[in-house]
Amino acid sequence: MRQNPIQNDADHDAALREIERLWEAPEGTSDGDRMDVLITDVESYEETHFPIDKPE
Hints:
Elements: H1 9-22, H2 30-49
Helix pairs in contact: 1-2
């Protein structure tokens, strides 16, 4: 399984739709593994492009 990096908002939206489709995939299956990779990629993209300020 090869996952291309999320490079723009369209990639981000597509990754979120794929995560939703895979949401109940059993852990340890190829779909479950793909979901884990997508979640990691989405988190990384969101931290960079949609940062949340630290509380004061």
